[in-house]
Specification:
It is a single chain. The protein has about 150 residues and is an all-alpha fold. It has one domain (about 5-145). The chain has 5 helices and no strands. It has helices spanning about 5-35, 50-85, 90-105, 110-115, 130-145. Helix 1 packs antiparallel against helix 2 (about 50-85) and helix 2 (about 50-85) packs antiparallel against helix 3. It is globular. It starts with a helix and ends with a helix. Mean pLDDT is about 80; it is low at about 40-50.
Length: about 150
C-alpha cells in the first residue's frame, strides 16, 4: 500500500473515531439535558409511542453536533489549503464553512436549550435537515481529503 493511501486511511480512521466519540457524548448530554417533561402531553399524537419526540430531538442533537465537527474538519482543511495556495476560491470555501459552522452551532437543540428555548412538535422533520446536511458535508469532506 502506498503512503498516499495509508495517510488517507489514517485520516478517515481519525475522523470516524472522533465522530463516534462526539456522537456518543452528544447523545448522553442530550438525553440528560432534554427531559421528557419538556414535551407537553397534549402535543404527543396518540399514534406515537411515548418518548418518540425525545428520540427525534436526541437524534437531531447528535447529528447537529457531528455536523459541527465535520465543519471544523472542513474549515481546517480549507485554511491549510489557503496557506499553501493563497487562492481566492479557498477564501470563499473558508467563509462558506465558517457560516455553516455558525448555523450548525445555533441549530443545535443544546444551544437553544442553553438560552431557554425549547423546540417541540416537529417530530421527524426536526431531524431531516440535519440528516441531509450530514450527507452533504460527508461528501464534501471526502472530496476535500481525496483531492
Amino acid at each position: 500500500m502506498n503512503s498516499q493511501t495509508s495517510n488517507s486511511l489514517k485520516i478517515w480512521a481519525v475522523i470516524i473515531v472522533t465522530l463516534t466519540v462526539i456522537a456518543f457524548l452528544a447523545a448522553l448530554w442530550a438525553s440528560y439535558t432534554l427531559p421528557s417533561s419538556q414535551f407537553p402531553e397534549r402535543l404527543r399524537p396518540s399514534q406515537f409511542i411515548r418518548g418518540d419526540f425525545e428520540f427525534f430531538y436526541v437524534a437531531q442533537t447528535v447529528l447537529s453536533t457531528v455536523n459541527v465537527v465535520l465543519l471544523v474538519f472542513l474549515l481546517t482543511i480549507y485554511v491549510d489549503v489557503y496557506r499553501k495556495t493563497r487562492s481566492h476560491f479557498t477564501i470563499g470555501l473558508i467563509i462558506f464553512s465558517a457560516v455553516f459552522l455558525v448555523r450548525a452551532i445555533t441549530a443545535n437543540p443544546l444551544f437553544m436549550r442553553a438560552f431557554g428555548f425549547m423546540a417541540f412538535g416537529l417530530g421527524p422533520f426536526a431531524l431531516l435537515p440535519e440528516l441531509f446536511e450530514f450527507v452533504a458535508l460527508t461528501v464534501l469532506l471526502y472530496l476535500s481529503i481525496k483531492y
